[in-house]
Amino acid sequence: MISIISFRYTVVSALNPNELESIYHSAARAIIEKRATLPSAIFPLLKPIYVPDQKFMNDFATLSIPTSGQRKKIVKYILTRLESHLSGRSCDPETDPASIEHILPENPTQEWEESFPRIQWEMAIYRLGNLTLLSPADNRRVGNALYSEKQAVYSQSAYMLTRQISDMAPEEWTPALLEQRQQEMARQAVAIWRIDVTNTDV
Fold first, then answer.
1. Degrees, nearest 5: CA angle 114-182-54
2. How many CB atoms lie within 10 A of CB 202?
3. What is d(CA 87, CA 69) in angstroms, rounded to the nearest whole number?
4. Torsions phi, psi of 108, nearest 5?
5. 42: which of 24, 93, 126, 174 is 20 to 30 A away, CA to CA?
């Protein structure tokens, strides 16, 4: 519960983390004092900081995270969770060898302007909809290549998250397609990072 709530509240919706402390403290006291011993009793205490689905989905749909430093781990965590959800197979962010691929490259060549206006490059590169998983070898292979070359590699990827790009964008990568992909990711995210207390009591 804490993992999901903190992810929705802090990472995606970027709300004031100071609000978490007092509510987590109150819930912890209720557990220690045995006033709340099952998830169904604990969740109501945490509900004030559980970001509603619609807000979480809207915030996820616009999320942009730089892929350097510690933030890179967050991006890989998000992408591997999406991959696990889509493919039905475990994809652990700590052990899976995948690297993070930028569909619109971090350093696009001038040829990219034909499908992706230069004015939008800076805002688009670190949008989640522009990021996916590739094996390190494939990632080195595609580098700053044009989309047509990347698409051929994506279509053969071991990651369903990446193969889907080839299906939705068989010819070019555009701002509209990035937006469409991130909206779909946001819908998936609501199902992945959610708390259903009816299934947590044991």
1. 145
2. 5
3. 28
4. -65, 145
5. 93
